[in-house]
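thought: fold this chain, then report.
action: predict
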Amino acid sequence: MPSDSMEWRCYQALGNRYLIAPPDAIFAKKNIIIDACSACHSDGLLIGSRLQLASADLRIWNPDGSEAEMSGNGVRIFAKFLLDNNFWKMSGGKIATIGGIASCGFLANGDVTARMAPPLVAADKLILLTQFGPIAGYVVFWGNPHLAIPVDEFPQNWRRVAAILSRHPHFPKKINVHFLRILHKRSIALRIFERGVGETSSCGSGAAACAAVANRHLGCDATLRVNMVGGTLHVTIAKNFLQLAGPVVQVSIGSNHLPLAPAAAGRCRSAAKFSEGGIALLGRRITRKNTAS
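observation:
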């Protein structure tokens, strides 16, 4: 059980920073999560439990204190933390989140990978009425919900538009919003607004969602470079999985006196629940078939 004086670590993946608490930590109050993320300029908080040689459970918290189902960068960061601290070996392992189970590994060039079932991609565009006029995008689910909006150029007011869309009444639990540009058949560019966070320099699950949209609906290849403000993720789409690959580094380590509750983190829900959540989100017009061309 962690003590009141917690040792924390901060990692970043393409500018997406996560604070990692000691295993099995549970914060006594929601505002402690908010304060911790603010103090460390973090995009979220990761708390692991049931750490085994090739498996772990993970809960992911946003800076506003809400809980996220999944984070592509978050699971890659946690896998690197497990490797750095001798919980795992280079062979990698599986991380269970509320949004599903990710198989994580380590490449010879130092990149960290995360692999899950292909995203659920809506068959048709959803048209949303806003104060900026109608906006059309594809709803996608890869452990958590995303709205991918294809554009020729990023709008100057994209942050304002994304903030409105993220909390649109159509999405009662809010949604991550991405503006998507096609650079060529093997490369796309994103601007990212995450629910519970705001603008971020990168988003792993968002990169996966937008790559799936680009492949299925916009004529792109199944192997893509996803270019974000913080850098590039490499996405591979296959019949039975989608894989992310990119760098992860530790940026700081320290201790903080944060009150912790004497309870272990609960076991994450199964991947079956994540699939049901995606189906409920997307409604009838969904697909989980192979999007690879």
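thought: worth noting. The chain has two domains: 5-107+247-268, 120-245+276-282.
final: tokens above.
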